[in-house]
Structures are given as structure tokens and as C-alpha cells.
Design a protein that fits this description.
With 506 residues, this protein is of the alpha/beta class. Helices cover 18% and strands 42% of the residues. The chain starts with 5 loop residues before the first helix and ends with a strand.
Length: 506
């Protein structure tokens, strides 16, 4: 273009600048509108996603509560049909439970599957699986598992019915309870509870002169977890008493019965009869547990007597016949998987490796009350919970003079009318053990993994004028949490009431 004057040229430049400015403005407006729309879309997407997530979260929470409601309903159902807990007859599984809102309508449903654990034809517990889903969104389900059973004594490290003194060498893991007073000088990591407010601590518990003490007292660690009456209720030991006649019936028909003069497995007699080994502290059975779920049985026909003092009669000497001098091999037997109970109607020496879960009972349906002697180490072939032992003695569960220097016993040990312990043996004096056994008087360490239930005072270490002189120099007690909720058959219960235990989400 040819400009005739300078003014025309100036006007043309101004028009071009205005046109350029308008173009830039339009582009900026479009750019900002694009950014705005992008941000708006992002925010809307976030809001919608959050709303969707919130609805999903609400549906999941509803499903969880519906699943829990299913467990509670089935607990109610089992409580109102007690016959189910005998032989498992009457279980309704799977069962669909509809959950309604009292002020609205249906919220969702829970599907409960129930499986009874039977031993010797008797229910030990019922496993429940509840799958809950909300009508708000059936895509999201929540699954809860629980076990319905009477709480086991296996939940305790020790459950006692007498005054007790836990020495400074004791290391205790797990709840410790006594209906009597407790002097606790050991190391603990859980509750220590006494059912008495005060008790008389005498010289046998290290108090001279006799003094009145709180239910739990001592120099041990963890005193913040100690409690006593009136904040602690007493434990009903009579309620955990085992019905020996009933257990003998199960062993006689489908388990293993070591009778006074014969052996029966699964209801069939093994071989002929023999001279009775029952009703005597000097005879009985020696049972060796094997890792392959079998046992080797010996008839004890001869024992060595040694003098000792028992915890339930500390002022008197008695003669123990716990050292085996002669025995006869009786046989090798497989523990029946459907009824893993061994009933021994005689004094019982016990040792070995536990394969699966088994209950050993030493009891006499007559006047005699036999003991269980922990002859040697008792260990498990598996530490995953598939192995377990419950040993129930009508009288006491004791560790003999001749025992390992570093001894380990695993299981739930129940001394129904007697006590758990190792008697006092003397190195010197008129009542000293024979010289061949002097080295056994003082041993190094006893490790108990499981539970001790004792009607009488327990004791595995003895002091003479304040100095350790017999028993084990150190004791370590640890409860077995795997056995607490999955104990061997007919393990005594800590409560008569059934509860939901082992609650967890799948």
C-alpha cells in the first residue's frame, strides 16, 4: 500500500494495532476458558469420585455391620439350641439372615456357614463364617470369622486355687491367677490377679513373723497389672472338674483305654490281660508320645522309693515311688484321629514328642487317685498349632527326682485335686536321697510352655534358710496362645458360658 501522507500512514498503523490487540484478547479469553473448563471438569470428576467412594465406603461399613449381626444372630441361635453343642445335630448351614432397619426397610443380608469340631462324637467348638453385603451395593462384601466355644483354661499361664510364691527367678508370660494370695517376686508381662483382698503370709512364703498382705504383693515387675479383691472375682474350681467316668467311656469305645489289666484301642482289646498295675503308687503305665501320632506303652512293674516333702504337706516326709526300675513293653499304638483321648486307670509316667492334639487322663473310677509324672521332656512336632497336649491328673502332676537338668514341658497340665510341682529332695541328712541320685536334687532350669492348673500350691524350687537347696534354679513360664483358642479335646473350660472367640476379618 502507498501512503500519500504521513497522517494516513499513522491511522493505518493504529488500526493494525487495534486488530492485533483484539486477536490477542480473543486468544487469551479462549485459553483462560479452556483452563477454567479443564479445572471445572477436574473438580467435578473429583467430587463425583469422592461421592462414589463415599457411597462405596458406606456400603462396606454397612456390610461389615451386617456380617457382625449375622455372627450375633447365630450365637443367639446356638445359645437357644444347646443340644447342638452336644453332637452337632441341628446346625443350619449355610443360613441367610436378613438385617432390617427398624425405622425403614431391609438393609442387607448375611450368609453364615457353621462347622462343628467333633471329638469322640462330642462338639468341642463351632467355627462361624459370616459374609455380609449391603443392598446399597452388593458388590462390596465383608467376611468375618469367629469361634463359638467355652473359654479354655489355656488362656492362662497359671490358674491356681491356693496361696503361692513366685520367686525372683521366675519369668512369667501370660495371665496369672489364684483364688489365694500371691507373693510375686518374678518378672511378668501380663495380669496377676488374686481373688482375696488380704492373706496371711507366713514363713513358708518368706514372711517372719506372719504378716497380713494384699492379695498380690512382692518385689516383681509389672505391678501396674496386679489386682485383687474386691476388683477380682474368685474362680470356680469345682466348675472345671472333669467327669472322669464320661471320659473313660469315650476312651473305651473310640479312644485308647489303658485299663488296670488290659489295653483297648478304638473299642478293641489289644492282646490278652496281664497282672494289674492299678491302684498303686509303685506301679502303673509309662507312656511315650511319638511325633507320628503314635504311643509306646510300657507297664511299670518296679520303682525305687526316695524320701521327699510335698507342697501340700510341708511339715512331713513321704516316700515317692517315681523312679522306674523295671518295666515291660506293652505295645505300639496309633492315637485315633476321631477320638484322641488316652485314659489311664493307673499312675502314669509321661514323656515324648506330641504329634497332633491329644488328651491324656490319669484317673481311677474307684477310691485311688493317681498322679501324672512328667518323666522327661515333652515337646511338639509342630509349632503352628496342630500339635497340643492336655494332661489331666485326678490328683497331682509332678516332676520326679530323676529328670533333665534343662527340662522343657509343653502342654496344659491339670492337677485336679492335688498340685503341680517338684517335691523337695535332700542332699544330706537322715532323709537324703541315695548317693546315686544326689546330682539330681538341684537342677538348672524348667521351662513350661502352656498352662498350669493346680488345686494346691505349686512349687518347683525349695529354699533352706533362704538359700536355694532343691528343685530348679530358674523357672520360665509361657502360656501357649495357639492352645488358648484351639485346645485338645475335653480341655477344662474357664467358664460355663459359651462366647465368640478368635474374632477376625478375612
Amino acid at each position: 500500500m502507498i501512503y500519500t501522507t504521513q497522517a494516513e500512514k499513522s491511522r493505518s498503523s493504529t488500526l493494525d494495532a487495534r486488530r492485533y490487540s483484539r486477536g490477542v484478547t480473543v486468544m487469551l479469553v479462549l485459553a483462560f476458558m479452556g483452563i477454567f473448563l479443564f479445572l471445572l471438569a477436574t473438580i467435578m470428576s473429583y467430587v463425583l469420585t469422592q461421592g462414589k467412594y463415599g457411597r462405596a465406603l458406606n456400603a462396606r461399613e454397612q456390610a461389615f455391620n451386617i456380617s457382625e449381626a449375622g455372627l450375633e444372630y447365630y450365637r443367639w441361635f446356638l445359645a437357644h439350641n444347646p443340644s447342638i453343642m452336644n453332637a452337632g445335630v441341628g446346625l443350619t448351614s449355610p443360613y441367610t439372615y436378613i438385617v432390617n432397619d427398624p425405622e425403614a426397610s431391609r438393609l442387607g443380608e448375611s450368609t453364615i456357614t457353621a462347622t462343628a469340631n467333633l471329638q469322640c462324637g462330642v462338639v468341642q467348638w463351632v467355627d462361624l463364617t459370616s459374609v455380609g453385603k449391603s443392598d446399597q451395593s452388593v458388590v462390596f462384601t465383608r467376611t468375618l470369622n469367629a469361634r463359638y466355644m467355652r473359654p479354655s483354661v489355656g488362656e492362662y499361664s497359671a490358674l491356681l486355687n491356693a496361696n503361692v510364691w513366685a520367686g525372683a527367678d521366675r519369668v512369667i508370660s501370660g495371665p496369672y491367677f489364684s483364688n489365694g494370695g500371691i507373693r510375686m517376686d518374678g518378672t511378668t508381662n501380663s495380669t496377676v490377679q488374686s481373688a482375696v483382698a488380704t492373706w496371711s503370709c507366713d514363713s513358708s512364703f518368706g514372711c517372719s513373723p506372719t504378716q497380713s498382705k494384699n492379695g498380690v504383693w512382692g518385689s516383681g515387675s509389672g505391678s501396674a497389672l496386679w489386682s485383687w479383691a474386691p476388683n477380682v472375682a474368685s474362680f470356680n474350681f469345682a466348675g472345671i472338674a472333669t467327669n472322669f467316668a464320661t471320659l473313660r467311656g469315650y476312651a473305651n469305645s473310640t479312644g485308647i483305654l489303658l485299663d488296670i489289666d488290659r489295653v483297648k484301642v478304638g473299642g478293641s482289646q489289644q492282646g490278652g490281660t496281664f497282672s494289674s498295675v492299678g491302684a498303686s503308687d509303685q506301679r502303673g503305665y509309662h507312656v511315650k508320645l511319638n511325633a507320628d501320632n503314635t504311643i509306646d506303652v510300657y507297664r511299670v512293674t518296679g520303682t525305687q522309693g526316695v524320701y521327699s516333702v510335698h507342697t501340700d504337706n510341708p511339715g512331713s516326709w513321704a516316700t515317692d515311688y517315681d523312679i522306674i526300675t523295671s518295666e515291660t513293653y506293652q505295645g505300639h499304638y496309633t492315637i485315633p484321629s476321631g477320638c484322641p483321648i488316652i485314659y489311664v486307670q493307673a499312675k502314669t509316667w509321661l514323656e515324648g514328642i506330641v504329634g497332633n492334639k491329644v488328651t491324656v487322663v490319669a484317673a481311677d473310677t474307684g477310691a485311688y487317685t493317681p498322679d501324672i509324672i512328667l518323666q522327661n521332656n515333652i515337646t511338639y512336632s509342630s509349632g503352628t498349632g496342630s500339635s497340643g497336649l492336655t494332661a489331666i491328673a485326678e490328683r497331682s502332676v509332678t516332676i520326679p527326682l530323676v529328670s533333665p537338668d534343662m527340662m522343657t514341658v509343653r502342654g496344659i497340665f491339670v492337677a485336679q485335686s492335688g498340685y503341680f510341682g517338684r517335691n523337695y529332695y535332700a542332699e544330706t541328712g537322715n532323709n537324703a536321697v541315695p548317693s546315686a541320685y544326689t546330682s539330681y536334687v538341684k537342677q538348672t532350669q524348667l521351662t513350661t510352655i502352656g498352662t498350669v492348673v493346680s488345686n494346691g500350691r505349686i512349687g518347683t524350687q525349695w529354699t533352706c534358710s533362704g538359700t536355694y537347696c532343691s528343685g530348679f534354679a530358674q523357672r520360665i513360664d509361657t502360656y501357649d496362645r495357639l492352645l488358648a483358642f484351639s485346645p485338645p479335646a475335653f480341655t477344662p473350660s474357664a467358664s460355663v458360658d459359651y462366647k465368640l472367640v478368635l474374632w477376625r476379618e478375612q
